[in-house]
Amino acid sequence: MMSKFDHLFIAPSDFGKSLAFYKDTLGWQHVAGWGGGDQGPRGAVLKSSGGMSVTIAEEHDAKDRSWSHGVNGNRPTVHLYVEDVDAQFEKLPAGEHVVIKPEDTHWGTRWFVVSDPDGNLIAFGKPRE
Asked: Is the pTM of this model over 0.90?
């Protein structure tokens, strides 16, 4: 089953500074966002002119483990797009490399997360239909 690079997730220490860096310093386009005010912690998706996409998010309640799956909340996670999340997961052997089994996220995707031997995280997912 094919997978392709989708985006990199970064848990910034300062959301505002990171958002300004990607928008103003690098000139990346702010293409989506959520949260703020009464709507909870903020998140943003930014895209480079070359198509590279980065998602940044403030620390938030981790009921869906989208924040807590990182290493101390600060190691980037590589996100790969797959056509069928559950079928891709079924092809993997069981083991301690599985960090999160397939589940729906609060930002509208279905995903699962694995860890390589050095603790680097790789998320496989796609938008829910």
From this structure: no
